């Protein structure tokens, strides 16, 4: 490490400290609109204008927030079990967590991304990546429920994901931490040249949304950090930022900050399709899980897959190019016209913007500045569209409006800057509290941004709210971007650590939001569609209770003949067909969480009683004036008892 490096680092740290001090000092001087309260006020009984979907980061979930009010509407559990509704605890949902290393009940969820049609969010699905156990999940936005999770093989830390192409032909994945491919035992010191980075294209079925790994592209062992796909003229391309082009394997804060420029990788996915069709790819052994909720039964099912299609750029010309990009870029974002590729060079105070049309011209002219592992490096000067000088410190991510402005989050100086794609000059800046990561404008990464609100997603909260011990909530701030200058409207705490977020006009989702499950369509193998049909069956040591719930009783509510050593499955069908009448079910001694059964749905709770006795079960959701009466008893006899199975309701 050079002395210069240390100085730069020291300046960075000092600036961070100074940023916090300045920001805290300026706390009351922040640009809060004088009529902020009325602009975010959604009167009782009124509804918000936008849905926002915020990742939960290390809580593994996604939260749904209304804008402009900042009210949390729902947590959608994705990669982590959720005791509130039994996701990951019910027998129907456990398979959603299967992976090649067995069930994994947690992940670090970073980037929600809405499905798109013609470059505009269409409100059908939202995808989110799992970083630690590389996965992508799909949430159905008619149900606001996770319906599919696919594991990504040959990958370490799926961070640059799951950004979608303009018509959601693909969602992408990538390796933040390069790894041996295929995985094997080898010295870590042999990283350079031997570890690989996979970029993965997951196809999305246009009608049903089902995901499938179409192909992977094997790349040099850099750290692929973020991505965004092109739109309009650049729609056939996806762009991945990378750092650690030094291929360091230790003390990356120093060793991966040596090169003046790292790369944005440009991938032509249409070309990849062609190469695959021409037989240029190879099938590589792999082992990964694909978990899908069966729409008819409501039960998640796992398929293990044992091979993956891999393309080596050496066997497919014109597939990938490197765009030199200053200093360890973090985000990479494409403007609504598809012409500008804007990286967030987090260690550079200058933002260098790439031009897509110049990129194509440079490729055409073979205007290269050498290559890395055979992949052409384009000449920086030939592809640069413009540079924003003295932008800010620590630029991370960008969103766009329809007026040719870019909004950049600046982590170190804790601000959002607004700059013009025409003049490449900063036209406005607003302090945020504190240390912003991502930012989000509804539609702000699509071809149709809304020029209304910007949400700043801040990493450090400090003094913004009442103290809650050492652990504080992360924070979002709502900023009005409709006028010439940005104006602060609202602070609100978030759940987990929101990284990226998405926003969409509410009217695009409201119509399709499902209110109940049609009981007539319920094809769950243990569904019970009327109280006449309830029963209890024994199959060896398994006891299956076919149970129903309706205000305000379970049928049956008296069960006898269970024995110690049995595994009991309560398959509860909620017979209600009215919106917002779930029933919950829990029994004393169960090891899983309660199940919360929606109208017309069947869910299963597992119970392994350990001691003889009589155990109560009850409804966990206050569903009627007689909710407290919604209870029952299960009798457990010794293992050698010969008490026959019996069940009843009201006798
Ligand atoms: S990354 S800020 Cu996944 Cu920027 Cu979070
Ligand atoms: Cu059903 Cu409370």
Topology:
Layout (H helix, E strand, L loop, with lengths): L2 H23 L10 H5 L9 E6 L5 E7 L3 E7 L35 E5 L2 E11 L4 E6 L4 E7 L18 E5 L4 E2 L14 E10 L6 E10 L2 E7 L7 E7 L8 H4 L5 E8 H9 L4 E12 L6 E12 L8 E7 L2 E6 L5 E6 L5 E5 H9 L3 E5 L2 E4 L1 H4 E5 L6 E6 L4 E6 L4 E6 L5 E6 L4 E5 L12 E6 L16 E6 L6 E7 L7 E5 L1 H4 L24 E5 L2 E9 L2 E3 L2 E6 L3 E8 L8 E5 L7 E3 L4 E6 L5 E6 L12 E7 L8 E3 L3
Parallel strand pairs: 11-16, 34-37, 36-42
Antiparallel strand pairs: 1-2, 1-32, 2-3, 4-5, 5-6, 6-7, 7-15, 8-10, 9-10, 10-11, 12-13, 13-14, 14-17, 15-16, 18-19, 19-20, 20-23, 21-22, 24-25, 25-26, 26-27, 28-29, 29-30, 30-31, 33-34, 34-35, 36-43, 37-40, 38-39, 38-41, 41-42
The chain binds (dicuprio-$l^{3}-sulfanyl)-sulfanyl-copper and dinuclear copper ion (CUA).
(dicuprio-$l^{3}-sulfanyl)-sulfanyl-copper (RUQ) binds next to strand 24 and strand 28.
Short summary of the structure?
With 651 residues, this protein is mostly beta strands. It has 7 helices and 43 strands.
Task: Give an overview in words.
The protein is mainly β and 651 residues long. 9% of the residues lie in helices and 42% in strands. The chain is built from seven helices and 43 strands. A hairpin with a 3-residue loop joins strand 2 and strand 3 (71-77). The protein is globular. The chain starts with a helix and ends with a strand. (dicuprio-$l^{3}-sulfanyl)-sulfanyl-copper is lined by residues 110-111, 159, 330, 396-397, 437-438, 499.
């Amino acid at each position: 490490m050079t002395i210069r490096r240390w100085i730069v680092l020291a300046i960075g740290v000092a600036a961070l400290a100074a940023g916090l001090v300045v920001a805290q000092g300026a706390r009351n001087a922040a640009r809060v609109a004088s009529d902020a309260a009325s602009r975010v006020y959604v009167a009782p009984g009124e509804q918000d204008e936008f849905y926002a979907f915020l990742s939960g980061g290390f809580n593994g979930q996604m939260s749904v927030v209304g804008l402009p009010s900042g009210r949390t509407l729902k947590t959608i559990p994705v990669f982590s079990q959720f005791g509130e509704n039994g996701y990951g605890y019910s027998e129907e949902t456990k398979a959603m967590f299967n992976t090649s290393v067995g069930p994994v009940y947690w992940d670090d969820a970073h980037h929600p991304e809405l499905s798109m049609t013609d470059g505009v969010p269409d409100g059908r699905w939202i995808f989110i990546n799992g970083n630690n156990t590389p996965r992508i999940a799909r949430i159905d936005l008619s149900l606001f429920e996770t319906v599919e999770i696919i594991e990504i093989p040959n990958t370490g830390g799926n961070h640059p994901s799951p950004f979608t192409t303009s018509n959601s032909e693909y969602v992408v994945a990538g390796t933040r931490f390069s790894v041996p491919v295929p995985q094997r035992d080898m010295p870590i010191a042999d990283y350079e040249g031997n570890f690989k980075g996979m970029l993965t294209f997951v196809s999305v079925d246009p009608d049903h949304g089902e995901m499938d790994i179409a192909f992977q592209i094997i790349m040099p062992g850099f750290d692929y950090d973020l991505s965004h796909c092109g739109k309009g003229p650049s729609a056939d391309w996806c762009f991945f930022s990378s750092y650690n082009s030094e291929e360091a394997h230790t003390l990356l804060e120093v060793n991966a900050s040596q090169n003046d420029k790292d790369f944005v990788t440009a991938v032509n996915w249409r070309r990849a399709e062609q190469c695959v069709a021409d037989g240029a790819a190879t099938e590589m052994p792999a082992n990964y899980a694909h978990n899908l909720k069966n729409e008819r039964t409501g039960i998640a099912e796992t398929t293990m897959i044992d091979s993956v299609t891999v393309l080596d750029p050496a066997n497919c010309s014109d597939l990938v190019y490197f765009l030199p990009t200053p200093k360890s870029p973090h985000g990479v974002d494409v403007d609504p016209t598809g012409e500008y590729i804007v990286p967030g060079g987090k260690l550079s105070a200058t933002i260098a913007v790439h031009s897509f049309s110049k990129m194509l011209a440079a490729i055409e002219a073979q205007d290269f500045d050498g290559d890395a592992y055979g992949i052409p490096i384009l000449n920086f000067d030939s592809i640069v569209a413009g540079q924003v000088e003295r932008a800010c410190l620590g630029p991370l991510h960008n969103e766009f409006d329809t007026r040719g402005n870019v909004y950049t989050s600046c982590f170190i100086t804790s601000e959002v800057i607004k700059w013009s794609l025409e003049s490449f000059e900063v036209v406005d800046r607003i302090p945020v509290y504190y240390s912003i990561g991502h930012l989000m404008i509804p539609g702000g990464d699509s071809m149709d941004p809304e020029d209304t609100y910007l949400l700043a997603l801040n990493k450090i909260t400090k003094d913004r709210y009442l103290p809650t011990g050492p652990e504080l909530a992360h924070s979002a701030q709502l900023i009005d971007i409709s006028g010439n200058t940005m104006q602060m409207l609202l602070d609100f705490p978030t759940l987990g650590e929101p990284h990226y977020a998405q926003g969409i006009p509410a009217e695009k989702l409201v119509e399709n939001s499902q209110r109940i499950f049609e009981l007539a369509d319920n094809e769950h193998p243990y569904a019970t569609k009327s109280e006449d049909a309830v029963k209890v069956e024994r199959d060896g040591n398994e006891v299956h209770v076919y149970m129903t719930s309706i205000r305000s009783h379970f049928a049956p509510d008296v069960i006898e003949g269970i024995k110690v050593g049995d595994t009991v499955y309560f398959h509860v069908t909620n017979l209600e067909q009215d919106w917002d009448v779930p029933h919950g079910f829990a029994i004393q001694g169960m090891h899983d969480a309660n199940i919360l059964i929606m109208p017309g749905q069947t869910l299963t709770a597992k119970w392994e009683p350990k001691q003889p006795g009589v155990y109560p079960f009850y409804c966990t959701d206050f569903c009627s004036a007689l909710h407290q009466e919604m209870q029952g008893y299960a009798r457990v006899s010794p293992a050698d008892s010969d008490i026959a199975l019996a069940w009843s309701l009201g006798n």
